[in-house]
Amino acid sequence: MDISERGIYRIVDANLNRAREGLRVVEEIARFVLEEEALQKKTKSLRHKLASLFASLPRKGRAGSFTSGAAHRLDRGLLIDLGRDAVSDVGKDYLTESEARRAGTLDLVQANFARIEESVRALEEFTKFLPGERSVRLKAMRFEVYSLEKEYVQAAYRASNVHSLRRIGLYPIIDREAVGELDPLDVARQVLVPGVKIVQYRDKVSSAAEVCEVCIRLRDITLRKKAIFIVNDRVDIARASEADGVHLGQDDMPVSAARELLGSRKVIGKSTHSLSQARKAAKEEVDYIAVGPIFSTPTKPGAREVGPELIARVRGITDKPIIAIGGINRRNLREVLEKGADGAAVISAILKAKNMHAAAVAMKNISRRNPGTPS
User: Fold this and answer.
1) What is the CATH number of the domain that holds 309?
2) Measuring CA to CA, which of 7, 42, 247, 252 is 20 to 30 A from 280?
């Protein structure tokens, strides 16, 4: 059975509108949710390119004869009169359970890209019955859509990471040298008190094999505690241990290379020691910016303290989460949070305390009392 001309136009009409509607949805996400201007412009350009591809399709004139789009421009919605028949469309009222609700931004993005890709594929096939080279151009456009989806997914994951790090509060760092003869795993169990949502493992003295073994076991502990697990410096070990992310220093692997290795789902933090370094980090694909050392610290003897005012200055140039680090204790924790830090990374004030668990609880309670910090 051959497809009628009317049937072809109905299929083209339905899929063209479905693709354009999907592109409009994700464009709104880029504009108002992700606030990614470049992504929004790229999506708008693709939407217009798709529309222009069908602008010359014939449509009914007033007397019922068919005219070209050049003589009779398609109006809002690109209505193709020959194919438009919503009343008799047998699929118009069918709604799957998954279409009735969305779990979040990422789910919304992926659902709409699925619609776009399916529609463009259908257009690619059925325009083979029409004159011109639309099908060839639609094939190229389909691969543009695949690349665009990857960018949206990456941006959605980064936005999710930023949201989870916003007002994170206490950020304990388990430093191998600082814990001495203690087992890092036992230390983790003591510092991961209720309400602590993130922890980092820092080891600059052990072999790669030893660090990896500890991180794999720390990954299990943090999963049970529902805490974000960050590995200091070592992108390879972060990946091998399936950690949630990595923290990079100024002399470590470039952020772009780390992102390429870890993918969009992982958290990447970056240490900065000046406003210029923070400004550069703000333009990179990092999920949080560490600022310090705020005060003098035994962890980095000889390092120049930058003072809490730098936190406020960095807050003025970026919306990304800021983690204050360096010499932070019970006496000055509230000050750094009030200056605009979303969290405070702490080593000595907890690890050198007589009772690490009690010290972690006390500092977590201080961060909880800071306005805007979640309990």
Assistant:
1) 3.20.20.70
2) 42
